[in-house]
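task queued by scheduler; priority normal; single chain, no ligands, no partner chains; default sampling; output format set to structure tokens
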Amino acid sequence: MKTLALAVTLLLLAGCATPYQSGGFRGGYKEVQLDENVFQVSFRGNAFVTADRVENYTLLRSAEVAMENGYDYFVIVDKDAYETTGAVYTPATTYTSGSLSGNNFYGTTTTYGGMMSSYSKPSSSNMIACYHEKPEGFSFRSENVISSLRDSLGIR
């Protein structure tokens, strides 16, 4: 019975992971144009998504932003990844039951809850400079990043 409950819980939690979407209640991406060809692209995840996946989402969105603005290439000028951590406490509930027999009290006390669960929410941010032609040095080709990451992340 415990195995079934654990399996159902894990299945439900998997459905709670931040999807690849514009920023919303469960997280998502957003971007800001800082200059003609410079953008700040970020992705905020929730406690049910890995930091690696959030970084891949940020890279994918960076490529999409470049393509949406007519650029074939981009360079990550600055990158930041961080996690917000916290804890959730469940209240403790105590039940006492017993009986009195003469001058003797016989009882049982049971406590439920009173647990702490910690969590972390990964986030990632890229400042990108976009180019129509391949710049010197290392750069990403937007089209290649999009096709590769959409396939590996299972995004259509």
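post-processing summary
- Residues 51-68 form the longest helix (18 residues).
- Helices lie at 2-14, 51-68, 142-153.
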